[in-house]
Amino acid sequence: MSGDSEEGASKVTDETDEKKAIRVAVTGAAGNIGYALLWRIASGDCFGKDQPVILQLLEIPPGMQRLDGVMMELRDSAFPLVHGIIGTDDSNIAFSDADAIFLVGSRPRTKDMDRSDLVAANGPIFVGQGKAIDAVASANVKVITVGNPCNTNALIANANAPRIPSSQFSAMTRLDQNRAVGQMAEHSGVPASKIHDVFIWGNHANTMYPDPRFATVDGRLATDVFETDWLRGAFLDTVATRGKAVIVSRGASSAASAASAAVDHMRDWWQGSNGRIVSMALPSEGWYGVPEGLVFSFPCRCENGKATVVEGLPIDSFAQSKIDENVAVLMEEREAVGGLLEIS
Ligand code: NAD
Ligand code: LMR
After folding, report:
1. Residue 2 has what pLDDT?
2. How many domains is the chain partitioned into structurally?
3. Mean pLDDT confidence for 200-206
4. Annotated catalytic sites, by residue?
5. Are residues 257 and 246 in the same domain?
6. DSSP single-letter state for residue 340
7. In terms of domains, do 204 and 187 share one?
8. Cα torsion for 297, 299, 302, 307, to the nearest 10°?
9. Is the domain of 117 the same as that of 183?
10. Residue 243 CA to ligand 2 centre (angstroms)
11. What is the pLDDT of residues 272-292, one digit of tens each?
12. Does any ligand 2 atom lie closer than 6 A to the CB of residue 152?
């Protein structure tokens, strides 16, 4: 019997070893989102239950002691899929050969701020990190930007990494999509698992548009299930201002839900969205008239490691006005960070 179980044990190891470990970098790894995110990545929720990972964790020097503690706890969790953990304050080490990068590290806002108020403090971080990605990451790296204002920070990182195709940079609006699903679930009594294809246009800001027109709730169109007044009123406002509401209530910005959304975003990009529409902010290629290069949230489907914008959806006058509003805000932000987009 003991021979059998040893054989069984070595078989499990062989299966785990079948795939080559991928390198996953997380910045701000000792912060609140990092603390929730790392355990989900380590357990296989993001890249697959058979995909080993090497975690490459970045902090700034004042965060290194906290990072040591996080790394102790990760090791103490003995995840079978974790084949290595590196902690560093050097982005050239953290991003070295990275296959996937979560750009989280940056300051969160306080309740008296808008996310765009963070651009002066956080924008410059993404210049250096963009350059490091350009210098050392895998040519196929997938980058998700979470640190706020995430659309414009992704724009800055992308601009500073000319070697990496723009299609490999993204910013996170999946938390906004998940909030929209959560609101629909609560207001219909239908579980989140039966709500599909509600997605976000635009900026991760109060101007965002959670578009309900193609969403289904247990197989019925959301526009038949809910009143238009609610969809364009309380629903839209609740989703768009949820970040502030969490900060006011919790005294800190969303962390567990943000980490969960980052996992959803990267998991679907990596493993496919199974035909579902998901929200991803991507550098525009002119889709829906959005100026080229602006990092804008679009409806996407993911397959074979590629995110494709769903084109040709009808745009009514309300949707067009929301798209225009978001373009205007993002153009202003782009102008404000012009100096950070010029490669020296
Ligand atoms: P936090 O303050 O708890 O943690 C941030 C961590 O980043 C800290 O440990 C800090 O030392 C580190 N850090 C700061 N500058 C860094 C740098 N240059 N390189 C590496 N690490 C650095 O904050 P948090 O709650 O984890 O939030 C992080 C960011 O994510 C904030 O900007 C927040 O606004 C944003 N956020 C975005 C979304 C979204 O939906 N896009 C959701 C929630 C939070
Ligand atoms: C969120 O949406 O929860 C985050 O972007 C944090 C914030 O500042 O709102």
Report:
1. 31
2. 2
3. 98
4. 204
5. yes
6. G
7. yes
8. -40
9. no
10. 4
11. 999 999 999 999 999 999 999
12. no
152 and 185 fall within a common domain: no
**Which atom of ligand 2 is nearest to 148's Cα?**
5
pLDDT digits (tens, 9 = 90+) for 37-96: 999 999 999 999 999 999 999 999 999 999 999 999 999 999 999 999 999 999 999 999
Residue 107 CB less than 6 A away from ligand 1: yes
Q: 201 C-alpha vs ligand 1 centroid, how far in Å?
A: 23
Both 134 and 185 in a single domain? no
Task: Give 282-287 contacts, CB < 8 A, sequence gap 24+.
Answer: 282/166, 282/167, 282/169, 282/170, 282/307, 282/309, 283/154, 283/155, 283/158, 283/166, 283/167, 283/169, 285/309, 287/311
**Is residue 130 domain-shared with residue 192, that is, in the same domain?**
no
What does the pLDDT average to over 289-301?
98
Last residue of a domain, one of 129, 148, 171: 171
Q: What is the CATH number of the domain that holds 79?
A: 3.40.50.720
The mean pLDDT of 193-219, rounded to a whole number, is: 98
Contacts of 184 (CB under 8 A, 6+ apart): 190, 195, 198, 212, 215, 217, 222, 225, 226, 235
Here the CATH number for the domain that contains residue 289 is: 3.90.110.10
Domain range for residue 109? 3-171
Are 29 and 77 in the same domain? yes
Q: Are residues 156 and 186 in the same domain?
A: no
pLDDT at 10 > cutoff 80: no
**Distance of CA 344 from the midpoint of ligand 1 (Å):** 26
Our answer on whether the CB atom of 243 is closer than 6 Å to any ligand 2 atom is yes
Q: Which residue is it, tokens 């987009």?
A: 341
State the closest ligand 1 atom to the C-alpha of 145, by its place in the atom list counted from 1. Answer: 41
Tell me the three state secondary structure of residue 266. Answer: helix
Residue nearest to atom 2 of ligand 2 (CA): 243
Looking at 171, 200, 216, which one is the last position of a domain?
171
179 touches ligand 2 (CB under 6 Å): no
